[in-house]
Amino acid sequence: MTQPSSNDKNIYLPKVAILDRVQDEIQEVKTFFWHFENPADQEEFKKFRPGQFAQVSIFSQGEFPASLPPSPTEKETFFTVRTVGSVTSGLHQLKAGDKFAVRGPYGNGFPMEQYYGRNLVFVAGGIGLIPLRSCIIYALANRDRYKKIQVFYGSRSPRELMYTQNLREWEKIEGFEFYTTVDRGDADWKGNVGVVGSLFKKPDVKVPVENTTAFVCGPPIMFRFVIKDLKDMGFHDRDIVSTLERYMKCGVGKCGHCCIGMAYVCTDGPVFTYEQIKKLGEDI
User: Fold this and answer.
1) CA 258 to CA 133: how far, in whole Å?
2) Between β-strands 212-217 and 240-243, what pairing exists: parallel, antiparallel or unpaired?
3) 36-50 pLDDT tens trace
4) Which residues are paired to 209 by β-bridges?
5) Cut 0.90: pTM above it
6) What are the structural domains of the chain?
7) In angstroms, rounded to a whole number, what is the distance separating the alpha carbons of residues 160 and 227?
8) Neighbour-count burial for 129-150, b at 16+ CB within 10 Å, e otherwise
C-alpha cells in the first residue's frame, strides 16, 4: 500500500478554508472556489497532481472525499460537488466568506509526466468530466510536451453539460480536437446526438492507437461500452486509465471502506489502468 506523498508533515490534519464564490454547473452540481486561511497551506496544497482528491469537512456535519478538478497550473482552487447527502448538502448551503476545512491531497493521481510524447484521448460522460478536467487543463498548459490531444464528452442532454465556459474555449483551440454529444437534443442543440462512443465513428474523427493513452471517466454503463470501443480499435488494457469511485472515508488507507481485493482506492488509486482494474476483479 502506498502512502500520501507530500512534504507537508500535517497532511493528515484538516486546515481551515474560506469560500470565495459558488458557481452553478448543472442540477444539484456546483463549483466551490476557495482558498486556505493560511497562505502557506495554499502553497503546499498547490503541489497536488491531476487525479488526486481531498477530504472536505463541514463543521458540525462531517467529512466527504472530493475530486480536484483544477489543474496545478491554474491559480484558483475549487471543488465541483453534487449534493448526494447531508454533508455535501451542507457545502451547498455555504456562502462566500463561510469557512470549512480541507485535508490532503491524497491518492496517486494521473502520472502526466509519464505521458510526455504520447497522444492523449479523453473520454468523459456526464460528471465524469470532473476528475478529467484537471488532466485536460494540465495537458493544454504543457501542450508542447504531448502529441495529438482529443476530448470526447457526452451528457444526457444539453442542460447537463459540465463546465460550459471551458467547453466553449476548447472548441476554439487550434490543434486541440474537442467533440461533444448528447443522448437527447433540444430545439437549440445543433451538435451530435448519440452516446459518446458514436463520436468515434464520425468520418472526420481519427483516433490514434499507437503511442496513445486513453482516459475514461463516466457512469458504469458508459465506461463498459467505451472500453469495448477502445479495445475494438486496438487499445491495450495498460493504455486505458480511469478512476475508481469508492467511499474513501479516511483517505489514508486505515479504515478499509475503500478496500478492493488487496488494494485501497484512497492510496493505491483512485487512478488505475484498466489492466489493474481487471486484476482487482472490479466490475466498474
Assistant:
1) 23
2) parallel
3) 999 999 999 999 999
4) none
5) yes
6) 15-106 (2.40.30.10), 112-243 (3.40.50.80)
7) 23
8) bbbbbbbbbbbbeeeeebebbb
